[in-house]
């Protein structure tokens, strides 16, 4: 099967996810800047989640640049990833609305953890379909960043019940780690 439809569908779902997140930002009924201050947890959680969804969109794009075909396994692995990405707006809203309380911060971490696992499954499915000597397999290599991300999410979930700030630091750390441009696929294509 060709990859065009999976890319178009994924782009559409990710665009809807971002739209849902921004629609969750409720405008204060008062027209003074001080009323925005009460919304800082909502804005902060939105910014972090927007960055995460952007990271997944960017990396998803890079995955599909180096493959030329897909199969049913890849389709379902991609749907699995999109399912967990679609949970980001819910976890984001709950965390922001509850001012980073422990349970919402833990759920947010769980959703991020599942996104990381789902992305890893998608990557492995693509590599299995294209072979261990494929451009993608060479570009991905050991997947150290992915493994470190999943471990960080797991630690953050555990930390959320005694320090939401430590959990938040883990979430920011992983986001920053992925914001640094990953040139493996681009270098492999050269």
From TrEMBL:
Localisation per UniProt entry: Membrane
Residues spanning the membrane: 6-25, 37-55, 75-93, 105-122, 153-180
UniProt similarity note: Belongs to the TMEM175 family.
Superkingdom of source: Bacteria
Membrane topology qualifier: Multi-pass membrane protein
UniProt KW keywords: Ion channel, Ion transport, Membrane, Potassium, Potassium channel, Potassium transport, Transmembrane, Transmembrane helix, Transport
Pfam families membership: TMEM175
PANTHER family: ENDOSOMAL/LYSOSOMAL POTASSIUM CHANNEL TMEM175, ENDOSOMAL_LYSOSOMAL PROTON CHANNEL TMEM175
Any one GO molecular function term: proton channel activity
Record protein name field: Uncharacterized membrane protein
Principal subcellular localization: membrane
Recorded catalytic activity of this chain's protein: K(+)(in) = K(+)(out)
Listed GO CC annotations: membrane
């Amino acid at each position: 099967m060709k990859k065009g439809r999976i890319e178009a569908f994924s782009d559409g779902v990710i665009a809807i996810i971002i739209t849902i997140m921004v629609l969750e930002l409720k405008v204060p009924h008062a027209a003074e800047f001080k009323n925005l201050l009460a919304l800082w947890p909502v804005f902060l959680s939105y910014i972090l989640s927007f960055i995460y969804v952007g990271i997944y969109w960017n990396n998803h794009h890079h995955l599909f640049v180096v493959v030329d075909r897909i199969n049913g396994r890849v389709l379902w692995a991609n749907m699995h990833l999109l399912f967990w990405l679609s949970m980001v707006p819910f976890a984001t809203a709950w965390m922001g609305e509850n001012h980073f309380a422990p349970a919402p911060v833990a759920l947010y971490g769980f959703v991020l953890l599942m996104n990381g696992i789902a992305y890893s499954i998608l990557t492995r499915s693509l590599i299995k379909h294209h072979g261990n000597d494929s451009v993608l397999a060479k570009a991905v290599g050991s997947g150290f960043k992915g493994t470190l991300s999943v471990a960080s999410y797991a630690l953050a979930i555990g930390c959320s019940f005694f320090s939401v700030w430590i959990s938040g630091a883990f979430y920011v750390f992983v986001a920053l780690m992925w914001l640094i441009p990953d040139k493996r696929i681009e270098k492999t294509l050269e």
